[in-house]
Amino acid sequence: MFKNYIKIAWRNLLKRKVFTFINVVGLAIGFGSSILIYLFLNYNLSFDNFHVNGDRIYRINTEQHRDDIEYDPSVPPAFANVFREEYDYSERVAKIAFQGGLLIDIDDNGYQKKLKQDVAYAEEDFFNIFSFPLIYGGTEVSLSEPNTAVLTEAMAIKMFGQSDVVGKTFVLEKDKTITITGVLKNFPRTSHFTDELFVSFENLIDIFEFAAGENWGGITSNLETYTLLKPNQNIANIETALLQLPKKHRPNSKTRHLYKLQNLSDIHFSPDYGGLDPNLLWIFGIVGLFLIVIAGINFINISSAQAFYRSKEIGIRKVLGSFKTHLFWQFLTETFVISLFALGLGLVFAALFLPMFNDLFRIQLELSDLLSVQFFSYILTILVVVSFLSGSYPGLLMSRIVPVLALKGKLSHNDTGSSSTRKFLVIAQFVISIVLIASTIIISKQIDYAVNSDLGFNKESIVMLPIPSDIEEENLYSLKNRMKQIAGVENVSGCLSSPGAAENNWGTGIRFHTKPEVEEFNIQAKLADEDYIETFGLELVAGRNFFKKDTLDEVLVNEKLAKKLGLDSSEEMLGKQIAVNGETIKATIVGVVKDFHDQNFTSDINPIFIAPYTNAYGEIAVKMNPLNRKQTLSKIDERWSETFDGYIFEYRFLDDRVAEQYEREQRYLSLSKVFSGLAILIGCLGLYGLILFFVGQRTKEIGIRKVLGSNVSSILALFSIDFLKLVLIAGLIATPVTWYFMNEWLQEYTYRTEIHWWYFAIAVLLIMLITMITISYQTLKVAFTSPVKSLRTE
Question: Where does the ABC3 transporter permease C-terminal domain lie (predicted)?
């Protein structure tokens, strides 16, 4: 019997090729999208699940409670030894520090290479906590001695052109010869550790003395602490016990520290600590469901509409003895065949678009990830569910057809499916499309608002050049002066970072003037020379710039500091002294700059002080004339290389760096555009199929109307008005839904765009336009046909 079902199903599908094509392509797009989304979800949900003791591995974070809460994936440098020695909760504790863009020189028997590389400084127990096996160099990682390193196989090939490099050496930052003691197996793609070169923690003191020390005075996010807990530990009890550490080691601090243990499996999904927002996974899952729902609605609408034309076939089958269940399963078989073809085509779509998908999200998904029992279970479930839900309603309609009425041709279209049901399903399609389009518009407007708004500083034609950490002051000023002499260079400044840099932030306590205690808030340090405000176009609203001096006794602050201090005006701060960084820096406020965005738009503007502190400078900012930038950059390269012989010249334009801060939002926008387009495409296919059906059904009516004097425009209006009403109803439903969710999303931003009514009007009008184009093609084709030919149509 099943063989007969398949044979008849195949004949029916070939008989109505256009409708079969519409159903197959619509479902294929839905299946292809769901496969890509499966890969994305599976990739993210698999992070760090390969470690043997992953359920007992925790990172220790800090919540800094002051006037607000800051989340740091780190603890003070002294924490690890205290936790290791004074508490009995863990088997192992290890610190790891990250340093970016360090210079590596390789000279191996005539093989020479120079590169800049991110380096992790790790304690030896780090590799006893995590499961990163060695492939060369023994059975255990050896990093207990200074000037030793381990690296991954991929990094070994990158550095030396071969994988077995145990015993080879390289020079780090031009002064430390490092010996390689082991080669690690390449890390899985789903590891949150991306560094591939690990140097002994003993060497960190040469690069970052604060992180290498034993103090409680501050926190740097470049230093992380991990622990392997003993079995069956109560995390809440441990965190409660750790409450005494700040009281003991930071008794005078106004910042209240809470030390929190975060399981390894949660690190990837912790947006407060720089991880992925888990809401993105929900968005992906819902959008994927939307696409399959739209494709399923197409199938139901078209199939139920065709039931009228198959009524005689059903009548004959019933007269010959077919039961309702036979007819029901016959139609389900047809649905299953269509779904099976769509699934195959969906796999092809997924394979074709996977590289684009990887580029969009900067990940490395592979089709080989589909070769698992989990995927086959997932896709089989989707295939069965979609086939059953899409085919059951039309199948029930056909099985209920009364044979006598069918054979006499007296069935009405309501006998083969309620028109209100079809309208409801079409409205559902339109609602989903309008929601996606309106969301895309709002996300786009927020990104445009963030990137193109006045940030309070100039970001155009400024190039940022990293400089060695050990640069001497005289070399820095010599380089600045020589760069200023280059035609096309307008100004040069040495600094810790640019005004809006989210990285390299340095927050510290502040005591204002004669107040006996530090304030309840932190102040951000923008360490820079006297050319900083002119280079970045910062505006002085009171006082003057500080002078170039050998001592740090003058600072600039921003307007926000006056507001946080409760002063009536910025001028009140002039001449007052501030003490920061544990009162190691004391200086007089000589000027106030207008507020600028020191981070992205998700954060409020912080109180800021700008002070000259050469030892902390990590970059040179060069303001260029936008004309002849290529030639100017070449000259800058020459001057830079003359000063830093043997180093690698690198640069980044500031406007590109600012745009990168909104990379997550750009991904949201790209996601919205892609899936909005797919939803519209699937909807158009279904709409075209319905119009094709309705026009064919009313061909004689069109002929009669033309004979009676109707023109083409009135015929077009006849078919359009009903669908345009459905679009308006969908718009009324979609508008509040979209407004609610987009308003919630915008709450993440302290500075955000407004949601205007015309965003939704644009979405509705766009769907109307697309609907009209879809309707017009087939309607006009029949409307221009001779009435004689139309009236002869059966």
Answer: 286-401, 674-787
Backbone angles phi, psi at 61, to 5 degrees: -110, 170
DSSP 528: B
**CA-to-CA dists, residue 773 to 687, 691, 723, 789, angstroms:** 11, 11, 12, 25
Structural element, H or E, at residue 563: helix 559-565
Q: What is the pLDDT of residues 668-703, one digit of tens each?
A: 777 777 877 787 787 777 777 667 666 656 666 666
Mean pLDDT, range 193-214, rounded to an integer:
90
**Does residue 611 contact residue 585 with C-beta atoms inside 8 Å?**
yes
DSSP state for residue 594 in the 8-state scheme: P
162's tokens: 């071969």
635 half-sphere exposure, CB direction, 13 A CA radius: 16
From CA 526, how far away is CA 532, in angstroms rounded?
A: 10
Span 546-553, average pLDDT: 86
10 Å CB burial of residue 721 (0-12, 13-18, 19+) is: exposed
DSSP 417: S
Hunting for tokens 């994927």 — which residue is that? 288
Q: Kindly calculate the radius of gyration of the chain based on its CA atoms and give it in whole angstroms.
A: 34
| β-pair partners for 323 | none
Largest CA distance in the chain: 105
- 94 pLDDT higher than 70: yes
Whose CA is closest to 483, among 459, 456, 465?
465
Partners of residue 57 on adjacent β-strands? 228
Q: Can you tell me the distance from the alpha carbon of 399 to that of 391, in angstroms, rounded to the nearest whole number?
A: 12
Q: What are the tokens at 124?
A: 């030896």
What does each C-alpha distance from 664 to 399, 453, 749 come to in angstroms? 51, 18, 13
- Strand order of the β-sheet with 619-624 is 489-495, 619-624, 462-466, 652-653
> Helices 699-707 and 757-783 meet at what angle, rounded to 10?
80
* Residues contacting 730, CB < 8 A, separation 6+: 427, 428, 429, 430, 431, 433, 434, 764, 767
Mean pLDDT across 548-575: 90
b/e code 146-173 from CB counts within 10 Å (16+ = b): eebbbbbbebbeebbeebebbebebbbb
Task: Tell me the HSE value of 237 on the side-chain side, using a 13 A CA sphere.
Answer: 7
Q: What angle do CA 74, 80, 86 make, to 5 degrees?
A: 135
- Domain residue ranges in the chain: 1-47+277-409, 54-267, 418-454+664-794, 469-646
If we measure between CA atoms, which residue out of 503, 748, 732 comes closest to residue 603? 748
Tokens matching residue 722: 């009903």
Cβ neighbours of 4 (radius 10 Å): 11
Cβ 511 vs Cβ 517: under 8 Å: yes
A 10 A CB-CB count for 514 gives 7
Q: What is the pLDDT of residue 425?
A: 75
Position 77 pLDDT exceeds 90: yes
Are the C-beta atoms of residues 592 and 542 closer than 8 Å to each other? yes
SS3 (DSSP) at 434? helix
The DSSP output letter for 494 is: E
**Tokens representing 561?**
């500091």
Please choose, from the candidates 10, 212, 198, the residue with its C-alpha nearest in 3D space to the C-alpha of residue 118.
198
pLDDT, tens only, 128-181: 999 999 999 888 888 889 999 999 999 999 999 899 999 999 999 888 899 999
The whole-number pLDDT of residue 407 equals: 45
Residues 61/375, Cβ–Cβ less than 8 Å: no
Distance CA(616)–CA(508), nearest Å, equals 15
By three-state DSSP, how is residue 713 classified?
A: helix
Cα separation of 335 and 329, whole Å?
10
Contact 474, 669 (CB under 8 A): no
Distances (CA, A) of 585 to 14, 84, 114, 525, 576: 83, 33, 38, 11, 14
Q: What number of other Cβ atoms are within 10 A of residue 589's Cβ?
A: 25
Category of 612 on φ-ψ map: left (φ > 0), alpha (ψ -120 to 50) or beta: beta
